[in-house]
Amino acid sequence: MAAVFPHADAALARVAAPAKGRRFAPGFFRAAFIHAVLIGTCVLIVLPLLWMFLSAHKSHEELFTKPFWWIPAEPHLFENISRVFERIDFGRYFFNSLFVSTVVTALDLFFSTMAGYALAKFRFPGRDLIFGAIIATMMIPAIVIVIPQYILIRDFGWLDSYYALIIPFAVSSFGIFLMRQALIGFPDELIDAARIDGAGEFRILFQIIVPLNVAPLISLGILRFLSEWDSLLWPLVATSSSEMRTLSLGMALLQDDRYGTDIPMLMAAATMSIAPIVVAYAFLQRFFIKGIASSGLKQ
Amino acid sequence: VFASYRGLGSGQATTGLVMVLPAVLLLGLFLVYPVLNSVYISLTSWDLVSPPRYIGLRNYFDLAEDSSFLSSAWISTYYTLAHLVTTLPVSLGLAMLLDREIRGRGVYQAIIFTPVVLSMVAVAMIWRVVYAPVGGLYLMFTTPFGISNINWLNNSTLAMPAVIIASLWKDVGYYLVIFLAGLQTIPSTYYEAARIDGAGSWHLFRYVTLPLLKPFLLFVTVVAMIKTAQAFSLIFALTNGGPADATKVLPYLIYENAFGFNQMGYASAIAIVMFIVLVMLTLIQFRALRTQY
Q1: Model confidence over A159-171: pLDDT tens digits?
Q2: Which of residues 24-83 of B touch A (CB under 8 A)?
Q3: ipTM field
Q4: d(C-alpha A232, C-alpha A273), whole Å
Q5: Rounded to an integer, what distance in angstroms lies between the CA atom of residue B38 and that of residue A148?
């Protein structure tokens, strides 16, 4: 059908989207259908989140007696939040997660950039072998090494400490890989010019290379921060005291059956735990999407 | 101090090695050594209290006859395949809808991607409440059909579908973005040429999109398989492996044997078997990559 009136369709497409029409020149009904499917999908995605948010404002009785869309006239959000703080040391867990994720991210950015730069721009014996070995370690799944890692950390006497949560993850093979791929195309002339001007190699790296390659660093930073923030298995096995719990672990244990039925309290906790990430995501969408997608597009 | 490294020649080799060294040491200690050690541990009987006792391949022979291992292997396979056949087609379909200049494209993509940035435990908490038998959000979809009071997470037939639906919700945006990147590598001139030849939407998909996307599809499928086979957090926080072991995937079984029952050797044997399967899948993935680029 579209082929019969190509110009009319093209004109419509231009009206619908100010940028150039790509691929199909969509007719009105086709566009309406596409929007309907996409809006429906977005509703299904948002609904559980919206429901979490509304439930955090309801009292326990209201949750079971009122319909979902009912918005409480007198919100019980603060009561629900105070019950969270009665049950768990939310602040401490939040701080632990923030601290561990930030330090791991910073260390990984530092070590990965340095190693990635060396692998991309220096010639030294065994370089390709080292790079190959690093690529190979990307295949190692966390669940396979959790037992020997636990034993190693136990032998170091690091169990139930920040060392256990941070040091084993201070560098990632994926980070090295990503930085090496990002820096390999960096112009050698610029590096040589800096050398001629008398800059040391580390100064070249941190004052010339890094400022000119912020994009892959942001991608890697977001990816690492979120994956540490998300981590559950390792904190579960490597920590034992309540003071060392991360937010993920603390929340997973909070929904223990004793409290499992206090839904408004659980939803208040869930809302507080995702709020900072969702706010950051709202402002930095593009970086989040690019960073996270980079983990699936190993190019 | 660094002045001696300045310039070209052998100084470069030293600097290069100095820069790579910390990463190599850390990866060696915390990744490579544990893998080797886990092969050794899998050949022992070890409860962490008394010293490990070497028992050869006994653990592996025991695995072959252990019904809990075989059942977990089946549950992992079921979960992984079911997750793939639900999530990937939905993601690809949505990616194709978004692979054009339409109003609100960025907004749609950003909303559908939102669950990806959330932590798995938060997602599990939300879905546990979605599945609450009384007052759960699922009622919104089932009451029109006169169905209520479903005990999703306490019913061994429904628990796995419940996990699969939650996984779909969480991951659809991730694969959507990956597929979109793949679709955008197909030059639009191919579509225009096919269109001039009179191809309809289905034919465009069947004879242009699909063949060109095939290596990419294989790659994404394997990535998704490896990722899903390792799922632990969602299971731990949503169903705790239950009810009656109905959602006890292999990673959960490893965790339980190692840190619940203190059977380090046996748990390591399970881990090694899983590792071998995952490595084979990864090799397929690298092969797929090579054909693509």
Answers
A1: 999 999 999 999 9
A2: 24, 26-27, 29-35, 37-38, 41, 48
A3: 0.88
A4: 14
A5: 6
> Average pLDDT for residues B179-205, to the nearest whole number?
84
Sign of CA dihedral A16, A21, A23, A27: positive
Q: Measure the CA–CA gap between B117 and A16, rounded to whole angstroms.
A: 31
Concatenating the DSSP letter of every residue in B235-251 gives: HHHHTTT-STTTT--HH
List the structure tokens of B96.
């194709």
Q: Are B113 and A49 in contact (CB under 8 A)?
A: no
The sign one gets for the Cα dihedral B254, B256, B260, B261 is: negative
Residue among A115, A198, A296 minimizing CB distance to B20: A115
Q: How many CB atoms lie within 10 A of CB B51?
A: 8
Distance from CA of B111 to the nearest CA of A (A): 6
In tens, the pLDDT along A85-116 reads 888 889 999 999 999 999 999 999 999 999 99
Predicted confidence band of residue B107 (pLDDT cuts 50, 70, 90): very high
The answer to whether the predicted template modeling score (pTM) of the entire model surpasses 0.90 is no
Average pLDDT over residues B77-85: 95
Kindly report the nearest CA distance between residue A211 and chain B, in angstroms.
Answer: 18
Among A109, A124, A118, which Cα is nearest to A204's? A118
Contact residues for B22 (Cβ-Cβ < 8 A; gap 6+) = A111, A114, A115, A171
Cα three-residue angle B149-B154-B160, rounded to 5 degrees: 105
CA distance A230 to A173: 19
- Output the pLDDT for position B289: 65
Joined tokens for residue B77: 């396979």
The pair of structure tokens assigned to A234 is: 């390792």
- Residues making up chain A, counted from first to last: 299
Alpha-carbon dihedral sign for residues A15, A16, A20, A26: negative
